[in-house]
Amino acid sequence: MNTETKHQEIPVTPVESSQIAAIGYDAGTSTLAIQFPAKTGAGSVYHYANFEAERYADFLAAESKGSFFGKYIKPFKDRYPYKKVS
Predict the structure, then answer these.
(1) From CA 47, how far away is CA 25, in angstroms rounded?
(2) Are 44 and 60 in contact (CB under 8 A)?
(3) Which residues pair with 64 in a beta bridge?
(4) Which of 61, 68, 80, 85 could lock 7 by a disulfide, CB 3.0 to 4.6 Å apart?
(5) Tell me, what's the pLDDT at 1?
(6) CA–CA dist 32, 26 (Å, integer)
(7) How far is it, in rounded angstroms, from Cα 72 to Cα 85?
(8) For the segment 32-64, what is each residue's pLDDT rounded down to a tens digit?
(9) Is the model's pTM score more than 0.90?
């Protein structure tokens, strides 16, 4: 029996950041996907719910993806509940 929880696949695009490897967004479900860097291979991917399209555009445009994450996403666990998907 497969006990693995199914999750949607959200394509991610690599970004220039030492703290974040890639990000993606699914407008249909308002879900942000963030892949964090790993020492070897692909890093962990987390999905953040209730993420607005405008906020994603701001994230993409941010000069520092890590600073944006630390200021506007990470502190708001109730607003953007997250789960590790891989």
Answers:
(1) 9
(2) no
(3) none
(4) 85
(5) 41
(6) 7
(7) 21
(8) 999 999 877 678 999 999 999 999 999 999 999
(9) no
Q: Which among 7, 6, 14, 4 is positioned nearest to 49, based on CA atoms?
A: 7
Query: In this structure, are strands 82-84 and 45-48 parallel, antiparallel, or unpaired?
Result: antiparallel
Q: From CA 40, how far away is CA 61, in angstroms rounded?
A: 27
**What's the one-letter identity of residue 59?**
F
Q: Confidence class of residue 11 from pLDDT cuts 50, 70 and 90? A: very high
Residues in the chain: 86
Task: Say how far apart CA 25 and CA 22 lie, in whole Å.
Answer: 11
Strand, helix or coil for residue 33: strand
Structure tokens at 10: 């959200």
Share of the chain above pLDDT 90, in %: 83
- Separation CA 45–CA 34 (nearest Å): 6
Report the amino acid identity of residue 81: P
The alpha carbon of 24 is separated from its chain's Cα centroid by a whole number of angstroms, namely 6
